[in-house]
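Fold tokens
===========
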Amino acid sequence: MQIKRYVPSRVKPVYWALLRLKASLTKYFERFYLYVRAPRIDDYVRMQRRYYIRNARKSAVEPGNLVNDQVVGSWREHDNWEDYEQYLMKYVSKDSQMVALDFGCGPGRNIRRWSSWFSRIDGADISKVNIANAKIFLKDQLDIHKEPLLFVTNGTNCGAAASNDYDFVFSTVCLQHICSHSVRFQILSDIFRILKPGGRISIQMGYGSPSPMTVGYFENNYGAEATNRSCDTEIADPSQPMADFNEIGYENFEYWIRPVGPGDLHPNWIFITAIKPRN
């Protein structure tokens, strides 16, 4: 934060002390209930929502440009990362007429990035400010008939996205930041709901153990104080996510372990895809 010019020099130390006090009190009152009871899933979802709303508000967005991105990080490098095309979109043709959804769409960069490959790409995100920023970022960036539907989620689902409606649902640098297994399981289950029979899920996550600032794949760290690299999950073996996919009902589980991408601290990345059965 910049100190405004009308703040006298002799007042600046007090000014900064008050700002620090305000930040500390805000953090305390946002989480005071954790001092009297064990954290629950709704506490974790609330923390994530506040985090992404707060960071989205700090971001400066204009049509086609994330000027001061505080959500994605290294977004231009992500746009040019070749493994997304080779593995995330492995089973998608460049002229497909499929309808897709980007889960954890943030300010909409992947909706623009892959727009030419699909008939339409919708988006879902936990932060209403991310969704508002996506509308700004995508202004005049897409063909009129490709204007996306954008949904605010409750943190464990795909929002108001219709059931059995999507040919393809994808997600990048999102699920790896959710350090609660039950939350991820509910999200994967709701993606299954919105996929058409025969539709495909394709996701990227961090892979490898040990990995800094992570918890185990099946842990539920409902008391995490922050997210987005401050407390992530790690996949130590592909059998871990495969167990979830099989339990939910997906089939044809495949994965590829690849070099870690821009701005991430995991040892590697893993790309995972599977299909919702037709029957």
